[in-house]
Amino acid sequence: MDHHESVEPGRVRQMWHLLEPLHALLYYAPEAHDEAAALGHATEERWPSYFAWRAAPLGPAGPLRVASAFYSFSPAMVARYVPATWAAASPAEVLAARLRAVDRAYRSVLGEEAVTGPALAEAAALARRAAGAARTEGRPIAAANAELPWPEAPHLVLWQAATILREHRGDGHLAALLSAGLDPVEALVSFAAIGAAPEPVFESRGWTASEWAAARTRLAARGLLDPQGVATEAGRALRAEVERRTDELAAAPWAALGPEDTARLAELLGGPWLAVIGSGLLPAENTLGIGKA
Predict the structure, then answer these.
(1) What's the rounded Cα separation, in Å, for the pair 97 and 91?
(2) Which of 51, 79, 153, 230 has the smallest number of CB atoms closer than 10 Å to its CB?
(3) Residue 3's pLDDT is what?
(4) Are 48 and 86 in contact (CB under 8 A)?
């Protein structure tokens, strides 16, 4: 059922803001770095484990497939980590380690009492229902995660549901970017141009200075940036349209869950959200536009 117009866009955005940190903890928690190191990944920088953790549901995918699915990373950067990562540990080994990492990180950050408590179990059940309603056609990363078996422990169910829902939103966001005619580097340049995050934050995506400059030139030619590289009114309007479309494409799971259960889930996620944001593990400046308490 696809009557997602009935869901307030603000609510759709709020659910993403609440769930994204619960997913993203995997990329920053020391427990996850430990598990990555045990797999044989270099952990001086976060990228070897990031590509492994996030791409593992796709199977032993090559760099073209991972760059396609992740969209905003330079293909040259992706090729530095993929498929080399599968030589260190197979996708199946990575998936098992991923759940161990989340188990340890959640116990550490949320605390044993919360992890085993009734509120988290209730949140996990609601999030799983929403994730089960996420349509996966044309959404490769959401589909890959939805295909995985569900873990038994409620805190791991919550993490997996959060992961399916954020990748469902992310896949829809890429559809919105494609519709707006924004290629991967233009997507970042146009996002930086509205002040979403400082440009150096986006440099982590691996594009060269000349690729970044060329994208600026293309966007300026479309009237989306001014000569200083700041978004014009048209540039801001296009980004607003991308966000509106992203919310619209992410609404179906919440329409299926219904307003009362969605509101209940939002309430139950408050404590875990505060614990993750309060842990200081997530970077204050990020390309996700989340975590601003």
Answers:
(1) 10
(2) 230
(3) 45
(4) no
Q: Do 40 and 87 meet the contact criterion of CB atoms below 8 Å apart?
A: no
Percent residues over pLDDT 70 in the chain: 95
**Average model confidence (pLDDT) across the chain:** 94
Q: Is the peptide bond before 83 cis (omega within 30 degrees of 0)?
A: yes
pLDDT at 204 over 90: no
Longest Cα–Cα distance of the chain, Å, equals 56
CA 159/CA 165 separation, integer angstroms: 10
The encoded tokens of residue 9 equal 């866009």
> Does residue 222 lie within any of the structural domains?
no
Helix, coil or strand: residue 231: strand
Domain that holds residue 270: 4-178+242-278
Residue 145: inside a domain, yes or no? yes
Q: Taking Cα atoms as reference points, which of 155, 48, 134 lies closest to residue 147?
A: 134
Q: Is residue 237 in a domain?
A: no
- As beta bridge partners, residue 231 has 225
